[in-house]
Amino acid sequence: MRSLLTKARRWVASAAAAVFFILWCVAEAGRMGPVMGIVPMYWPGTVPLVIMTTVIAVAIRWPVLSLSLTGVLLLGQLLHVVPPMHSNHWAIYIGSFISLGLIAWTATRRIRIIAFTVNAVFAAVMAFMMLSWRYGNGVGWFPQLYSGDRFTLSAFGPQLFALFLLIAAGCFAVGLVLALAEERGSLFQARELAQSKLKDREVDLIVEQERTRISRDLHDVLAHSLAVIAAQADGARYSVKNQPEPVLKALEAIAGSARSALVDAQRVIEGVEDEGMTAPQPQVKDIANLIAGMRSSLDIRDSVSGEPVDLSSGQQVAVYRIVQECLTNALKHGGRGTAVRLHFDWSGPGLTLHAASDLPQRTRQEEPDSTRHGRGIPGMRERAHMAGGWLTAGPDGETFRVTVFVPYGTLEGRNPGAGDQAKEPAGLATTVGGFSVKAIGNA
Fold first, then answer.
1. Per-position b or e across 87-110, b if 16+ CB within 10 A of its CB
2. pLDDT score of 75 more than 90
């Protein structure tokens, strides 16, 4: 219903004006004189009919203009510029009330009040001109008292004025009904939309609650398991004396990794609030410590070219996690001592990270299509995408390569030509602040 009324706003005024004009032409065809074309030139009601047709046509789009045209017609008749109404076409005045109904349907509350008030004044002027001997002289169907306007107006004025007001009120009421029907349809649609959104929010809340429950359970499991691993590793280090140095380093790395993973799990699961993580998030500068912690298990060679640029906090977290995933995958698939090359390139419009690690012999002999990827690569690709960049990963001969690009926008403030040569790993922790990264590692 609302959709139909909304569409009707565009054409109903023009259609009503056309019907009004055509019906009058048909009704008065025998009285319009020799010219029976589009504009009946010799008929006294020609000018009022044309003006009232225009009044109806512009009522919805320009209500003030519609009221003004009616006022111009009545003023012209009062000044004897336009012929007064005769007994056969006085009802052309009703066009003003039709426009009032259209205004009541589509206009604002203020315009509605003004339009009704103005039409009440118009009704009084119309009644006066129809009864006065200077204009309509009773329009042929009111008895002439031959006693001047005073007695004619006092005897028949209230009746005619009431008739015009009744017609105006009826048209105004029809317009208000249409407006209320359209508003009701809009409210129903808004209610349905609100209910749909509420249902979606309820579903999202249920899903979020379930995720929170699963996260808590997962945290309990991880916390217990990682704590046991760290405790067992430390216990093995101190319980047996004279252990080989490699064994001690391996146990120390196991304990440290377990504690770090436990802290990360607590940060991710328990530290989420409306505005993000409350616990400090890893940054690009923390990659140096990450590499240092993995050197006991991997043969890592890293380098930096270009001048580092600051990245956003979200981009820094993404880069850190991608490097962490690359090193973890290299250790997982290649084992201890796997060679890994990392290069951070800051010379482009963004940070490019190249990471490459040697593939194990068994993986090299498999068909390329048979290589199975877990959740590591999709997760890295999603992190790169959320940081505004992209990631590619896959075998390349005897190595597995990951290439990541994270844009950092403008290069303003950078020294031209600075940092074009590869730097040593020692500067990674202090100089890396925002970058384009290419990373390669097993997944």
1. eebbebbbbbbbbbbbbbbbbeee
2. yes
